[in-house]
Amino acid sequence: MGTDTGERSEPRGGHARLAELCRRLTDASASLNLGEEGLRLVDTITSALRSGLPPEELEDSFDELEEVLLAAGHSAGLGSYRTTPTLPPPGYQRLPVPGPAHPPLHVLACPRGHCGRVEAPPGDDAAPHPGCRVFDQPLRTVPLR
Questions:
Q1: Which three-class secondary structure state does DSSP give residue 140?
Q2: Under 8 Å CB-to-CB from 30, ≥6 apart: which residues?
Q3: How far is residue 29's CA from residue 13's CA, in Å, rounded to a whole number?
Q4: CB–CB of 78/69 below 8 Å?
Q5: Average pLDDT, the chain
Q6: At 102, is the secondary structure helix, strand, or coil?
Q7: String of DSSP letters for 115-138
Q8: Contact 109, 14 (CB under 8 A)
Q9: pTM to 2 decimals?
Q10: What mean pLDDT do residues 102-120 have?
Q11: Which pLDDT tens digit goes with each residue over 45-78?
């Protein structure tokens, strides 16, 4: 039998609630409408993360922010659950193999590797990378192998 040390470990793929907060802060079409308390919590969390505190040490603040989100009518809180129906995924398509005819494949990810946010790069190579509003940095390029 294992012993519970009371410590929370970061799930594989990064801190899920941090990824959802980052997504929500980036989505300009979805205003959070959190009020003063919620904005204070967002500022507390982002300031602590920018100063180097790992997200696992902010679970109490994430819990409080989740409560504020739920009270403001955001039914999923900081969960990544979707309430809108989604279409069935299209059939899988074969990925091009990098080689002379194809550039190397990559995705954009959390600039500090704390969360599981991943996005496809913009189609235009000259376009700036989307940003992370939690760390106020552009997403980093991660090559796919």
A1: strand
A2: 24
A3: 26
A4: yes
A5: 74
A6: strand
A7: S--EEPPPSSTTSPPPEETTTTEE
A8: no
A9: 0.65
A10: 83
A11: 999 999 999 999 999 999 999 898 888 887 777 8
Q: What are 107's strand-pairing partners?
A: 142
CA 65 to chain centre: 15
In this structure, are residues 143 and 130 in contact, taking their beta carbons and an 8 Å threshold? no
Amino acid residing at 76: A
SS3 107: strand
From the list 120, 117, 144, the residue with the least C-alpha distance to 133 is: 117
Half-sphere exposure of 75 (CA within 13 A, CB side): 4
Which of 6-10, 61-65, 113-117 shows the highest mean pLDDT?
Answer: 61-65
Q: How far is CA 81 from CA 73, 86, 104, 118, in A?
A: 14, 12, 32, 16
Contact 77, 116 (CB under 8 A): no
pLDDT at 38: 86
Q: Which two tokens stand for residue 97?
A: 């193999």
Q: Give the tokens for residue 99.
A: 């080689």
**Distance in angstroms (rounded) separating the CA atoms of residues 99 and 109:** 23
Distance of alpha carbon 78 from alpha carbon 56, whole angstroms: 15
